[in-house]
Structures are given as C-alpha cells and as structure tokens.
C-alpha cells in the first residue's frame, strides 16, 4: 500500500507539471524545480541541472526524458513509468476532448486570448529558470568561459546543441575530471 | 496502426533537443512523404499543440493519432513518440545512478552545467522574438519572472491568474 502511495505521489507531481506548463520542455523547469527539488526533495539542485543536460543529449521530447529520469531516481522502473504517464496524462484527456471539434477551439476568441496572455508569462518562467541555473552552475573562470563560448556557438545556429553539450562535457572531463 | 506507431517511433528516435526539433520531422514524414495530412491541417495541429499545456511533441502525436483512429490512434501514436525516449533514458539513468561517484562523470557534468544555463538564455531570446513587444506583454513577463524567482510564488497560480487577467483586460 505504501509503495502504491509513493508511486501515486510521483504521478500527481508530474500530472501537475504536465497540466500547467505551456510551451513545452523549458517552460516545465520552474515547475519541476518547485515540485521535485524544493517541495519534495527527490532531486538535489545539482542533479536538477544534470536532468536537463541528459534530456538534451537523449532522443525524444525533453518533458518525457526528464520525467523518466526523475522517476527512475525516485523509484526505479516503476517510478519512471508513473512519472512519464503523469506528465502525458493531462494531454491525453484534453487533446482527445478537443480533437473532435478542433475548428471550434481554433476560432474561439476567449481561448486564443488566454493563450496569448500566457505566452509572455511562460517566457518569464524560462528567464527565471535561466537565473536559478546560472546561479548554481556559473561560479569560476572555467564555468564562465564554457557559458560564454557555448552561448556564442548556440547563437551561430550552425552547431547542434547536442554537440555543444558533448564537447563541453569532454572539456570538463579533461580539465576537472581525472 | 503498426505503420503509424513505427512512423512516430522513428521520429521520437531521431529527434534531439525536444518538441520543436520534432515539428519539421513530422512534417516531412506525414505531410510530404506519406501525404496523410495536408499542409494547412498540419499548421493547425501545430498551433493547437503549442497552445495547450504539456509537451508539444506529445500533443501533436495525440492530435494526429486521433485524426487517423480516434482514441486508440492517439494512444498508439503517443506511445510511439515516447518509447525511444523512455528506453534511452532508462539506460542513461541506470548508469548515472550507478556511477555518481566517478570523477570522470563529475567532470563531464561540471563542463555541461554552464551549457544548460546558456541553452535557457538562448531559448529565452528566441522565444521573446516571437512575442509582440507591447507594455502589457513586457509587464506580464517581468512580473512573472520576479514572482517566481524572488518571491517563490507557485507558477501554477501565476498561470491561472494570468489567464483570468488576460480575459478581463481584453473583454
């Protein structure tokens, strides 16, 4: 029974994350930080940063990757199944309800007004996620250099983020590892 | 059905970097190659998927699956999309949890963590370009940033109140 309650708890935590994050992967971060790191302590602040890096270098949607990863940390395979189901559950219900009358929802003025308002709010959340990530990860000359160079490379748009992450990881192994 | 599952499985397997990276791949497979969806319809699906809560890739595969085979179709497509992601992360998290004292792994993540910050800053600038710059939007952005960062307000309340305010101001 206790085990079932535990799994139900992680399902609900990710259900909340899936139901309130608008705009995909990055918009979820402040929710994950609050629900998983601050409130329940299932993940340390450092591990929270690793989740995003791992989600980026592994194929598939970031939301699914981070749910699976955090779920595994919490309760191995069962944990990852419940967390992943939690994060997609709200979408399954809502999209199946909306899909039959897509035209109606597309042209409904109130719905589009709400979504337009939520866009800048979501961007504010991403800025907030940046702020807390920067505070936790950029502290010395090494991390400042990696931060600046990777930002320039991302802006050049010619290099895929996966390669930038892998490359920075190797520099980390050489300079800070062994 | 199996064909649909395989198409979405393939898309899930080769996309790196989340939902937005998936959109052009879905377009290529379903609109251009298989001609199962028209260009206009596809754009509608993308905009609905973006505006509803949850992961964009998940929402798009649910919508397309529903179009082909109602509820069952939506489940089949979403399973196809998440299965490669689910299995690859299971393998990665197994190794992450087993070797978290390894100095190589520590070095790797010390190098990677600052990149996560720059990815978020990059995504912030890119998304900001897509939003109209008026006083109201800038106010909403600034206030939600301050409330979450410095006052530790639950983002769920900000979403609910923001949506209501948006309706009230525009009516």
Automatic annotation (TrEMBL), chain A:
Superkingdom in the source lineage: Bacteria
UniProt topology in membrane: Multi-pass membrane protein
Keyword set includes Metal-binding: no
Subcellular localization(s) per the UniProt record: Cell membrane
Principal subcellular localization: membrane
Transmembrane segments annotated in the record for this chain: 7-29, 76-99, 111-131, 161-177
DNA-binding in keyword set: no
Keywords carried by this UniProt record: Cell membrane, Membrane, Transmembrane, Transmembrane helix
Short name of one Pfam family: Chromate_transp
PANTHER family: CHROMATE TRANSPORT PROTEIN-RELATED, CHROMATE TRANSPORTER
Similarity-based family: Belongs to the chromate ion transporter (CHR) (TC 2.A.51) family.
Official protein name in the record: Chromate transporter
Species in which this protein is naturally found: Tepidibacter hydrothermalis
From TrEMBL, chain B:
Transmembrane segments: 45-64, 71-96, 108-127, 139-169
Protein name: Chromate transporter
Record-linked InterPro entries: CHR_Transporter, Chromate_transpt
Top-rank lineage group of the source organism: Bacteria
UniProt keywords, alphabetically: Cell membrane, Membrane, Transmembrane, Transmembrane helix
Subcellular location: Cell membrane
Membrane topology annotation: Multi-pass membrane protein
UniProt similarity note: Belongs to the chromate ion transporter (CHR) (TC 2.A.51) family.
Pfam families per record: Chromate_transp
């Amino acid at each position: 029974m206790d085990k079932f309650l535990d799994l139900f708890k992680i399902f609900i935590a990710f259900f909340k994350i899936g139901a309130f994050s608008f705009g995909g992967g990055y918009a979820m971060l402040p929710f994950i930080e609050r629900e998983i790191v601050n409130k329940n302590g299932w993940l340390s602040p450092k591990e929270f940063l690793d989740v995003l890096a791992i989600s980026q270098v592994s194929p598939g949607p970031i939301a699914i990757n981070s749910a699976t990863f955090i779920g595994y940390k919490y309760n191995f395979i069962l944990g990852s199944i419940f967390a992943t189901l939690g994060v997609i559950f709200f979408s399954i219900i809502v999209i199946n309800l909306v899909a039959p009358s897509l035209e109606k929802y597309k042209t409904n003025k109130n719905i589009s007004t709400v979504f337009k308002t939520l866009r800048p709010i979501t961007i504010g959340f991403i800025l907030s996620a940046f702020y807390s990530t920067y505070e936790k990860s950029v502290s010395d000359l090494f991390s400042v250099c990696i931060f600046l160079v990777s930002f320039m490379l991302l802006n050049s748009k010619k290099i895929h983020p996966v390669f930038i992450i892998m490359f920075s990881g190797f520099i980390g192994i050489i300079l800070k590892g062994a | 059905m199996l064909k649909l599952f395989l198409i979405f499985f393939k898309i899930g397997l080769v996309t790196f970097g989340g939902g937005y990276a998936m959109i052009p791949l879905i377009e290529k497979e379903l609109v251009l190659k298989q001609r199962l969806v028209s260009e206009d319809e596809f754009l509608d699906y993308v905009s609905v998927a973006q505006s509803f809560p949850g992961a964009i890739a998940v929402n798009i595969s649910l919508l397309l699956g529903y179009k082909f085979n109602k509820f069952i179709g939506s489940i089949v497509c979403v399973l196809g999309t998440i299965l490669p992601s689910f299995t690859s992360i299971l393998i990665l998290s197994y190794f992450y949890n087993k070797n978290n004292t390894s100095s190589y792994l520590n070095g790797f993540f010390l190098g990677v963590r600052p990149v996560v910050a720059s990815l978020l800053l990059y995504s912030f600038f890119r998304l900001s370009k897509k939003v109209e710059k008026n006083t109201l939007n800038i106010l909403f952005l600034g206030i939600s940033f301050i409330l979450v960062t410095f006052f530790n307000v639950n983002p769920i309340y900000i979403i609910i109140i923001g949506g209501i305010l948006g309706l009230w101001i525009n009516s």
